[in-house]
Amino acid sequence: MVSVLAIAAMGIAVGSGAVIFGTNLPHRHTGSRPEASPSAASSSPAPMPAAASQLLEAVAAADLPEVVTVVAVGPTSEELGTGWPVDDTGDFLTNDHVVHEGQSFHILLPSGLQYSAEVINDDPAWDLAEIHVWGFEEAAFPIEDSLPPVGEPVVVLAAQGATGHPPVTVSEVGALDQSATVPDAAPGEVSNYTGLMRIGGQVFPGNSGGPVLTPRGQVVGILTLAAETGANAFAIPITHIDQVIQSWLSG
Length: 251
Description:
Elements lengths: L1 E5 L9 E4 L30 H14 L4 E6 L4 E8 L5 E4 L1 H4 L4 E5 L5 E10 L4 E6 L19 E5 L10 E14 L10 E8 L11 E3 L5 E9 L5 E5 H13 L1
Antiparallel strand pairs: 1-2, 1-13, 3-4, 3-6, 4-5, 5-8, 6-7, 7-8, 9-10, 9-12, 10-11, 11-14, 12-13, 13-14
């Protein structure tokens, strides 16, 4: 049994508990899904081909300057997460658990520049939020409209000022349709997760909301949970939330 945490603010475990694979947790989407094997969590990825690793490193070098630190200021605390551009008019995606307790918001760029932001859409059931950044625009990251296969090489990006660790994690899709529960999640946070994508890589507080990209530079997931020990991270597949994202952008 693997202990997990919600990876919102630097140095703070927002929620912790047990990841449970292959259980009948409530689904937040329709349709039946095969249950994951409990042994999947302990499988080791095969060595990544050098060509794939080079492509991922190129994607990271191109996209990392557009990834921002999302800062949610609450009455007694400050949460840090990661955001990335979903369109070219100043809208960024992150996790709901990064912003749900905030009262004011801004982003930080790697250069240290700061811009005011506003939460314009959120969906706690999917742990997803959209923020609008005033006076700052970036080119949108392309989104992949199909589920990546197990073994697909991927790179996870984090805001350079959010984690205190290197912002690039090169890995691969380790498993799909994973389930997790966070028994002591705070009010307003997601406690039951289903349909997750497992990624064999170590991430840190502040990675929340970070994009998971393929060697083609397309986003296939949004990071949401991480193992408290070991190298396992969990992302929400874009295919599960694409309709939500598109409705926000067209609204």
